[in-house]
């Protein structure tokens, strides 16, 4: 399309400097979009370094879009960007899951506080299971949006599972510990739930290596729920967080870690053979 007039130099300079009002500026911009000669006339008026920085910013925004919030937080904590991206795709680190976990823990704490020390069941039932469920949701192949990349990239699945497990624990345990301080009764109850909570995670990982995360978390949930309900058989209840039980959880953790180690080595050997 040809034009019969052109923008004079003073008006072009004012446009480049941003000194025109909205109406005149829009008119000049509309003309420039159609007139190649006037566009060429603006080239000497623009700072070359400023233009280069602007295009660099556009290129960076297109080629490297902003990372999601979990990835940005991980980067600020010193986590490498590839690992931060893998963490950002974790289902149990998304806002919806974190809010649901917080609400479940809050209601369990409230129910325990209202009921008193003789009814610790709500908190003891929920608190140790939240990390285990979060870990199960963190690496299930059916729900992992990066599954196709993980299986082809030189990033071991064991490493991915451990990194995401650690991220889930870091996101959930501090909140649970803070809520535990509100529990009635002795101060040690605020930390007593950590024993089963930290034991259920390696047990879940060990089970999942055989039957998958869905079946593994179902077994863990049913087993822990049965144990808590069974502790209600008499009053006052014998809660499954006493010192002797803590030793049992420590032993269970060691056994599950040994199973994970053996399974990991077997998988590496099988992968090397194939």
TrEMBL record:
Residue stretches spanning the membrane: 96-114, 120-140, 161-182, 188-208, 215-235, 247-266
InterPro entries (UniProt xref): Anti_sigma_zinc_sf, Znf_put
Domain annotation Putative zinc-finger: ranges: 10-39
Highest taxon, organism lineage: Bacteria
Keywords: Membrane, Transcription, Transcription regulation, Transmembrane, Transmembrane helix
Record-given protein name: Zf-HC2 domain-containing protein
Species of provenance: Nocardioides renjunii
């Amino acid at each position: 399309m040809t034009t019969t007039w052109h923008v004079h130099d003073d008006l072009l300079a004012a446009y480049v400097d941003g000194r025109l009002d909205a109406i005149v500026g829009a008119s000049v911009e509309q003309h420039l979009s159609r007139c190649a000669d006037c566009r060429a006339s603006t080239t000497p008026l623009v700072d070359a370094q400023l233009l280069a920085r602007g295009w660099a910013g556009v290129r960076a925004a297109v080629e490297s879009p902003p990372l999601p919030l979990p990835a940005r937080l991980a980067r600020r904590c010193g986590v490498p960007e590839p690992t931060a991206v893998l963490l950002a795709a974790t289902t149990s680190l998304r806002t919806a899951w974190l809010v649901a976990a917080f609400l479940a823990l809050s209601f369990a704490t409230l129910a325990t506080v209202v009921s008193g020390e003789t009814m610790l069941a709500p908190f003891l039932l929920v608190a140790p299971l939240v990390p285990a469920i979060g870990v199960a949701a963190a690496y299930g192949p059916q729900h992992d949006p990066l599954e196709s990349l993980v299986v082809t990239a030189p990033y071991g699945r064991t490493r991915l599972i451990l990194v995401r497990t650690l991220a889930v624990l870091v996101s959930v345990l501090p909140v649970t510990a803070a809520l535990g301080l509100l529990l009635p009764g002795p101060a040690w109850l605020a930390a007593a739930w950590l024993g089963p909570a930290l034991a259920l995670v390696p047990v879940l990982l060990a089970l999942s290596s055989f039957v998958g995360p869905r079946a593994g978390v179902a077994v863990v949930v049913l087993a822990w729920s049965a144990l808590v309900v069974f502790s209600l058989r008499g009053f006052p209840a014998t809660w499954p967080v006493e010192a002797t039980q803590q030793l049992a959880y420590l032993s269970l953790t060691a056994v599950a870690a040994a199973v994970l180690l053996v399974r990991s080595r077997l998988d590496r050997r099988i992968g090397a053979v194939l």
